[in-house]
Specification:
Length: 398
Amino acid sequence: MTDLAIAPIRLAVLGMDERNARLFKMFLSGPCRKQAEVVEDGEKADACVVDLDAQRGTELLDLERKSHPDRVLILLSLSDRAFPPESVLVKKPIQTESMLQAIARVRQILESRKPLNAEKPETEPRTIPLRTVAMTEKSDMSVSKVASLLDEQSFMSYMGVRDDIDPNNPEQAAAVRYNPKDFLQGNFESACALALSHQKALRVETPWKPLIIFPQIHRLWINADEAQLRAACAIPMTHLAHMDIGGGRARTVKDLKVTPIDTGEARLDPERLIPLDAFLWKMAIWTSKGKIPADISLQDEVTLKYWPNLTRFLLIPHTMRIAALLHHGPHTVCEVAQILGIRQQYVFAFISAAHALRLIEQRPKQQAAREEPPTPPAKPEPERTSFFGKILKHLKMS
C-alpha cells in the first residue's frame, strides 16, 4: 500500500530575485520532495516566504502583513530575530530538514484554523462497519495525516528539560532510563505485535481505553485525541487503573484482555483510525519524555536499520539529522548528540520512537576502530546531491 499524495503547500515568495526564486523552486521540488510549491498568483498562496535579509526585506514583510494579515509566514534570515505570531523562522543557509519542518509547521497552523466538524454538520459522529474497515483500504482517505512538528520550545514544554549526562556515571545513566513495559506503550506494542503475527483484528482492553487493531491494513482505532493520549502515556500502568482519563473506564492492570473481534457488527468513527507505525512512534515519544528505553545500552553502538516513513510521524527537533547520521553508520547515542551538537534528550526520544518500531540495531562498540579520532561523516542528508548542494549555497542570500 502506497501513501496517498499530499497536496503541496502553496507559497508566495517575496525578496528573491528571479535567479534565486528559480533555485528555490528547484529546492522545493527536489530535496523537499514537493511538499511545497511556489505559485505565481500570490492571492492563491497558503503561506508567504519572505527573505528578511533582502534589500527591502523588512519593508516587504510589513506590506505582506498589512495586505494579508492572516496569512502564515515563513521567514528566511541569517540571524535569529523576533518574528510575529504564526510565523516560522528558517535560518540560512537553508537546510532540507529546517525547510521540511517549516512546511510541517505551516500545515499544523492551517489545520488548526479549520472549524471543528466543518465537513460533518450532523450531530451524530460518522461511523462505518468494522467489516468495511478490515476489508478495504479506501478508509485511508479519511485518516490521511501529515507529519507534525515539535520545535525545541514545544518539546521542552511537553517533555521538560534534561541536562546531558555522563554515560559512564551509573547514577546519571539510571536517571535517563525508563521501561516501556511499565507504561501503556509496552502493552500496546505487545498487542500490536500479536495482532500482526496472527493477522487477525483484535480488541484490547487496557486500564485506560479499548484499542482495536486491524493488522491487514496496519491501522488501529482508539477513542482518544492527542492530548488525552499524551496524558495517558506519562502515567505508569499501576496508576492508570485508579484514574478515569477523558471519560475512559478504568480496568485491571494485571494482564490486558485481548480478544478477536467480529468485524461485521460494531461500528466506529473512521476519523479515529491511525496508522500503526505513526501511533507507536508518537506513543514512544510521549512516554519517554526525552529518556531512553532500559534495554538500549549507552555504551554499545546503535544504527538505524531502515529509514522510517517520517512523512506522517510526529517529528521532534533534529529528527532528520539524527536519522541520517544513524542510517549512515553506528554510533553510541551520546556520540550522536556530540557529533550533531544537540541535546542528548532529542537523541534519546528519537531512539525510543525508532526502537518501538524495531528499527534500532545494537552492537558492541568497536574499540579498535576508535583509537584514531573519528572522521565526521558527510553532511547527513541522504537525498542531497552535489547538484543540490550548489543550489543551497546560492540560497544563502544576504
